[in-house]
Design goal:
By secondary structure, the chain is α/β, with parallel strands linked by helices. It has one domain: TIM Barrel (Alpha-Beta Barrel). The protein contains 12 helices and 12 strands. Strands 1-2-3-4-5-6-7-10 form an 8-stranded parallel β-barrel. Strand 1, helix 2 and strand 2 form a beta-alpha-beta unit. Helix 1 crosses helix 11. The chain starts with 14 loop residues before the first helix and ends in a 7-residue tail after the last strand. The N terminus is likely disordered.
């Protein structure tokens, strides 16, 4: 695979530590895919380890049937689909009930990411994720684990105090119902907000696993478009610094500096159970190959605070 950062010589004394820390953090990484087609899912089946988690983004306006079909294909490819369920998109309790029944029955789904969704006005009775978590609907369809959203950079429409309250309520209700919980964060571009946010969680006594959202390799123009759409604050200059690049808007950006900084933070502070979660804006297969190389330790630290990745092994 093409190296995505500039190279230079790092201090030989710290190289063994760096090389060990990064794959350790990336070991249990997960992937998020937007509209994966059958060819892309087939490719993922050859790249990812058996049973790897692939989260399916809830695309506004996308028919539920398309999400179900993608989940079925992922299961057939030996992977574990984790569909997003944006509850504000469902016009009725019956519609959500039918959707969950099909995900469980046709794709064997046992884990979901439950979010409110971005609709200004709910299509039906659900205003937030907590309403779908409470009441036993998920367990009735064999769901045993849920992911809930976290926002290290804050939310463009919801105050931090409200985010904190809702997160705690979801965790408490899920525990009462016997559901396992993990947290998946919105993607960020800087390590400090991520470290501070996870530190706050641990200070509050929240020890659930956290999957840290990162944007996988893609061009900067695409990344900025998704950042605006998702309400993530970022500038072209900031992204260029984060990726170790100073190129035109169509230059490639990879999260190597951010991954390296987070690996160092995990070694220096108690962040608890954390893993990496890659948003595949540049394509699911390309992101999977990059993340797989990082997890395998096929990396070379550079002097700019990031690293390069080695080409895939023959037959890999």
């Amino acid at each position: 695979m093409i190296a995505l950062t500039q190279t230079s010589t790092a201090d030989p004394a710290v190289l063994p530590q760096v090389v060990a820390r990064i794959p350790a953090l990336a070991r249990d990484w997960s992937l998020e895919a937007v509209r994966p087609d059958s060819a892309e899912i087939a490719a993922l089946g050859t790249i990812l380890r058996p049973g790897a988690k692939v989260y399916l983004t809830a695309v506004p306006g996308r028919a539920p049937q398309a999400e179900i079909e993608a989940a079925v294909r992922l299961t057939s490819a030996g992977l574990t689909p984790v569909p997003h369920v944006a509850v504000r998109d469902f016009p009725s309790l019956t519609a959500l009930d039918d959707y969950l029944a099909r995900l469980a029955g046709e794709a064997g789904v046992r884990c979901l990411l439950i979010v409110g969704g971005d609709r200004d006005r709910p299509a039906g009775p659900f205003r937030g994720a907590i309403e779908a978590i409470d009441g036993g609907l998920l367990q009735r369809h064999g769901i045993t684990e849920i992911g809930i959203a976290g926002y290290p950079d804050g939310h463009h429409r919801i105050p931090q105090q409200e985010l904190d309250r809702a997160l705690g309520e979801k965790i408490d209700i899920a525990a009462e119902l016997g559901l396992s919980v993990h947290i998946v964060t919105q993607f960020c571009f800087e390590p400090e907000p991520i470290k501070a946010w996870i530190g706050r969680l641990r200070d509050f006594g929240i020890e659930q696993p956290v999957r840290i959202g990162l944007a996988g390799p893609t061009n900067i123009a695409t990344l900025l478009r998704y950042a605006r759409r998702c309400g993530v604050s970022a500038s072209a200059q900031g992204l260029a610094q984060q990726s170790g690049l100073a190129r035109q808007m169509f230059g490639m950006s990879a999260p190597d500096r951010l991954v390296r900084a987070l690996a160092d933070a995990c070694a220096e502070a108690h962040l608890g159970d954390v893993a990496l979660h890659f948003f595949s804006f540049g394509g699911a297969a390309a992101t999977a190959r990059w993340a797989g190389a990082v997890a395998d330790g096929r990396i070379a630290p550079d002097g700019a605070g990031g690293f390069t990745v080695a080409p895939p092994r023959r037959g890999g």
